[in-house]
Amino acid sequence: MQHYLTAFSTIFLPQNLLAICLGGLWGLMAGALPGISTSMGVVLLLPFTYAMSPITAFTILVSAYCGGITGGSITSILFGIPGEPSSVPTVIEGHSLAKQGRAAYALWVFLLCSIGGGLFSVFVMMVATPVIANFALRFGPPEYFALTILGLSVVSGLSGGSILKGVISALFGLFLAMVGTDGITGVERFTFGTSILLGGVSFVTAMVGLLAVSEIFIEAEEPFKEYKEASGYKGMRKEFPKLSEFKKNLTNLIRSPIIGTIVGALPGAGATIAAFLAYGEAARTSKNPEKFGKGAVDGLMAAECANNASTGGSMTILLSLGIPGSNTTAMLIAAFMIHGLQPGPLLLSQKPDIIYGIFVAMLMANLFLLGLTIIGIRAFLQLTRLPYSVFSAAILILCVIGAFGLNNNVDDLYIMFVFGLIGYFMRKQGFPIAPAVLGLVLGDLAELSLRRSLLLSLGNPLILVSRPVSLLLLCGAVFSIIYPLLKKPKALKGV
After folding, report:
1. Model confidence over 116-141: pLDDT tens digits?
2. Torsion angle of alpha carbons 268, 270, 274, 276, nearest 10°?
3. Confidence (pTM)
4. What is the sign of the dihedral through the CA atoms of 14, 15, 17 and 22?
5. Going by fewer Cβ within 10 Å, which terminus of the chain is more open, N or C?
6. In terms of Cα–Cα distance, which of 192, 183, 203, 6 is closest to 87?
7. How far is residue 303's CA from residue 123's CA, in Å, rounded to a whole number?
């Protein structure tokens, strides 16, 4: 208790409160703008922390981390542009709600669930750090492969009207994940003799093309159509969601932060996989699965709770084991090194003021983000008053800047527009885009985990089912595949 009292008194110093505000605002901006990811936002802050005290430095950095994950959903809902990869499910459901004239409502749902998920993970981090860290330490290649299969098994819940089209879309995403240099042998695959694809298909570039550019192409078919649904929002106060909405989704709101925290604690998993797993689980258990892809509130709640909850899980294993759970926490290791600290088991005993200070800083950052995000939302909402014909060009410019800014490479622009055309034809033919994105996200991890497992077992595939955790995850994947198939005939009978 003494450590927490000291940490609170330190964080409430003026310079640290200012660090929370500045870090949170910068994180919101970095997360909301395509091409400036959360990890990039943290890296850009690092030089400014050299002269700061360690606790102030980590306060501004973790505030930017939490703000970045939160900010990615603002542009996702309003413009259909995912600021962060973890915001893709938010694009699917939140942007659909915005197009129905419920932008402010979707923003309130996202904000409350984001803050709730973030606070939940911080409390878990403070109370159960050793337990989660020990659990994550047991994960080897077989467990990671089983986890990715579980993630891919939710395709049936993301397929809309046709499971077959959803599977084809997912297979297309898996194929894209195989493009580039083999992660184990170094052999070129499906590069077609060009150096552009040696590094594989950039997830962000493909995602912007499939989701944002393709929608602009769809809207361009009706050049004089105005975006009246979004421009006629009723205002933040009038659109505040009712308490009954959250009561109906209580199970979902409890399950999703747990998924996010656990997945966030797994090295290399991160907010994106957490968001997709929670979103897929919400689709599988929903009483109205036909609404997914068309503005399902429970899907939006699940994704937002999970992606923000992953921050506490990722920080847990960073602080307790020195293992980065995500790209952003990998960047934070550099911050520790800059200040002469080594994250890991000894840090808690040697520098408890730093550890408990980070706990309290993340807690306060999530609370401050409630107000900071409302300020950001009000600014972005004014843009929706413009007709779509006016700001669609601005959206396309943002897409171009985001794709080019990743590597300062014009080739990424070509790839983005190619995927924009692919996404356009997928939409026209009724192929869901979410399974393709899911396949691209999980494909590389699934392949590498499978091959490493087989290398460890000298080619014996039984290693995948001989370990309790991987067996449990694979059983969950089988259930996720079979359950919708058994449920569908009942839906056809009108039950």
Report:
1. 888 988 888 888 765 655 565 567 88
2. -90
3. 0.67
4. positive
5. N
6. 203
7. 19
